[in-house]
Design brief:
219 residues, alpha/beta, Arc Repressor Mutant, subunit A, Rossmann fold, three-stranded antiparallel beta sheet, 9 helices, 47% helix
Length: 219
């Protein structure tokens, strides 16, 4: 298999979409699909799909297309979804609890093992069977449990300090929802999710669409 470092970020970004659409095809009992049919579903050219998948060996057969179940399984392996990834949530506010209640994580191999917060009012409250613990318990918890991923849903003025604590206690992957870019060592993987930026991009595209419609109406 080609090493991940040789694969462009654009290809890696598309892989979860392939996985999601192939999962939908499996639910519809579709056994095979051509690159042309898959391209119409994904709004990506058939040539692009073939190029993307050729990075990992191809998976298709000329005249047959792709075996949906096989391709779904193989992309899952590339994404690391064939193993369980234990994770914790740090920040048990509205967003943290909403993520804890998202059951599809488990279907993808992401197992929530703990939820932490500084607010004593939340201590002991159960979210999908997992009791919220205090931050003071975090180092001991990480010492006694193999945790791969930490989800940060804290205010940005607390996120940097908490990231340092997590890293000192062995966390190598952080899913960061705090509105701040974390300064982390090179061996720590961070995926930043800036919700407001996503909403602003939506606002921009909506404004562009409305401007185009106004121009058409005034032409």
């Amino acid at each position: 298999m080609v090493e991940a470092k040789q694969i462009s970020k654009a290809v890696i970004k598309r892989l979860p979409r392939y996985y999601r659409y192939l999962g939908e095809l499996l639910e519809e009992n579709v056994e095979r699909i051509s690159s042309n049919d898959l391209s119409r579903k994904m709004h990506v050219t058939a040539s692009q799909i073939r190029q993307d998948l050729n990075n990992f060996g191809g998976f298709g057969q000329q005249g047959y297309g792709y075996n949906v179940k096989y391709l779904y399984t193989e992309i899952g392996k590339i994404l690391g979804l064939d193993t369980v990834h234990p994770m914790i949530i740090v920040g048990a506010g509205n967003l943290g609890q909403a993520l804890a209640n998202y059951s599809d994580f488990e279907k993808r191999g992401f197992k929530l093992a703990g939820i932490f917060d500084v607010n004593p009012v939340l201590e002991g409250i159960s979210v999908r069977g997992i009791e919220i613990r205090m931050i003071s318990e975090l180092p001991e918890f990480l010492k006694n449990n193999h945790i791969e991923i930490a989800i940060l849903t804290l205010p940005k003025n607390k996120a940097g300090e908490m990231a340092d604590i997590l890293i000192r206690n062995g966390i190598k992957a952080i899913w960061n929802f705090a509105h701040i870019d974390l300064d982390t060592p090179g061996d720590v993987i961070v995926e930043n999710v800036h919700l407001s930026e996503s909403l602003m991009r939506l606002s921009y595209n909506l404004s562009q669409y409305q401007r185009e419609q106004d121009e058409k109406n005034n032409a």
